[in-house]
User: Fold this.
Amino acid sequence: MTQESPPVAFFDFDGTLTRGDTLMPFLKHVVGSRVYYAKLVRLSPVLAGYCIKLMRNDVAKQIVLERYLTGYTLEELSIWGKTFSEEIIPTMIRKEGITRLRWHQSQGHDCVLVSASLDSYLRHWAQGQGFTASITSSLAGDAAGIVQGKVEGRNCYGEEKATRVRAWLESRRPQCSYAYGDSVGDLPLLSLADHGFLWSRRARQFVIV
Assistant:
């Protein structure tokens, strides 16, 4: 029989605990400004297609990752991810999100990071911030650990977030649950929780959904 566990709070990352996207800044951190901007120009049709909803999130992300990260090893990207988590992410933090995280931690709640962003850097950041667990997208590597820019399994976005959280909850029975997000892609996650909160850009605060 599954025993009752402490309350749990699930947090999206980009736009919820930070003020914006972290994937593109991570890619810039890895390849350097000159290469980053040169590739960005060539990727402009892909990014435009995503912005006007002509291309799915996962498809656009796959193309971007292939262009920037093919040839790197998982170990190299983990090293870059550690420095990114230590040097860049602290400059991008949304204080209102971190305040919510710290409150849940002070109450003894389990806190779980749930994000489509890459494990290469989120694993390091989540460990440093005291998260119970992190559920993220991971890059696939070949037998030698070399990356071709492909995501392992499904991109952790939208319904996939809810699917992975349900799997994480299979052996747990939290007293109650909370979830925080900032976009429509987080609504499946928020709908699972007893208490769901969405960041409102207009109100500049988290609102109940």
Observations:
- The chain has a mean pLDDT of 96.
